[in-house]
Design goal:
Strand content: 15-25%
Number of strands: 8
CATH topology: Rossmann fold
Number of domains: 1
Bound molecules: thiamine diphosphate, iron/sulfur cluster
Mean pLDDT: 96
Low-confidence stretches: none
Order of helices and strands: HEEHEHHEHEHEHHEHEHH
Distance between the termini: 51 Å
Number of helices: 11
CATH superfamily: Thiamin diphosphate (ThDP)-binding fold, Pyr/PP domains
Largest sheet: 8 strands, mixed
Strand order of the largest sheet: 2-1-3-4-6-5-8-7
CATH class: Alpha Beta
CATH architecture: 3-Layer(aba) Sandwich
Shape: globular
């Protein structure tokens, strides 16, 4: 789109009549609104977007956006979304889901999505609990917290999604907060614009199972930072920043590892495999090669 060209889409184009069934005060409303705004800013046609989720309260999100979507299988948003992008490289593909979906049952897919580097965006809505199934401890539940499955307090060390993403050399890593819509929208826009697999960790409170003061607790810890471009590619710097102040949570673009994405690599491979051929092989010729 030319710089001065008027936008073709408004937020209303991405909204549906179906009202979310989320509890009032749920952080997921903030994430939904950030995605509406990001798509509006990117001015992408609803029919050119696909959003795939797993299972959970957060994973209901595709149902509330007027784009192609699928509330899929628990923990499997990433492989399905990668398949969609490979089949339809021209569309914008997002995967969304909770901390349970992405870090428990779906954890095996995260490092592979990062190393494969398909050009898509993964938004993890981290509420530090299993919401849909009514309050069990999740991989990100803080140590010491009481949940329905840790009635005498959790003794597990929580996972840290941003550090995991950095360790996996994810090509773009950011963090936002459902209670800071403007900043979260910026993070989602930057992630979608990034050519490669981008990960946005979103602090998305569940007041129902983590208490009404969860929003305030998080708001008191967050600080928006701007990492200098010269530091964005350093894993050491990213880890050091995350650990620098145990009383603070960094919001912003936290790590970048730019490299050719999977689609570009696959095209290169196709060209190499065709070098020396004087014509496009027919199906008959290919079959003959494998079954002479
Ligand atoms: C194969 C399978 N195992 C377990 C479940 C039950 N289950 C549904 S959602 C969920 C966890 C949800 O937690 P999270 O992904 O953090 O989402 P939230 O509801 O908190 O947004 C579980 C264990 C399931 N649906 N399918
Ligand atoms: S249970 Fe928690 S995560 Fe689920 S809709 Fe309610 S507030 Fe949101």
């Amino acid at each position: 789109m030319a710089v001065d060209a008027p936008r073709q889409h408004t937020v209303a184009d991405y909204k549906r009549d179906l009202k979310p069934v989320w509890c009032s005060g749920c952080g997921n409303y903030g994430v939904l609104n950030a995605i509406y705004r990001a798509l509006t800013e990117l001015d992408v046609s609803p029919h050119d977007v696909g959003i795939i989720s797993g299972i959970g309260c957060s994973s209901r999100l595709p149902g509330y956006i007027n784009v192609y979507g699928m509330n899929a299988v628990h923990g499997r948003a990433l492989p399905i979304a990668q398949g969609l992008k490979l089949a339809r490289p021209e569309i914008t593909v997002l995967a969304v889901g909770g901390d349970g979906d992405g870090l428990s049952i779906g954890m095996g897919h995260f490092p592979h999505a990062a190393r494969r580097n398909v050009d898509m965006t993964y938004i993890m809505m981290d509420n530090r609990i299993y919401g849909l199934t009514k309050g069990q401890l999740s991989p990100t539940t803080p140590k010491g917290d009481v949940t329905v499955t840790s009635p005498f307090r959790s003794i597990d060390t929580p996972m840290e999604p941003v550090k995991l993403a950095v360790a996996f050399d994810t090509s773009f890593v950011a963090r936002g907060f459902a209670g800071n819509l403007k900043h979260l929208t910026e993070m989602v826009v930057a992630a979608i614009r990034h050519p490669g697999f981008s990960f946005v960790h979103v602090l998305s409170p569940c007041p129902t199972f983590r208490g009404m003061d969860e929003f305030k607790r998080i708001r008191d810890l967050i600080r928006v930072i701007e990492v200098p471009a010269t530091e964005l590619g350093s894993r050491d710097a990213a880890f050091t920043r995350e650990d620098a102040d145990p009383g603070a949570i960094n919001l912003g673009i936290l790590y970048k590892s730019p490299r050719p994405h999977y689609g570009e690599e696959a095209l290169r491979l196709r060209d190499i495999s065709r070098a020396g051929l004087d014509h496009e092989p027919t199906m008959q010729e290919l079959l003959q090669e494998f079954m002479p």
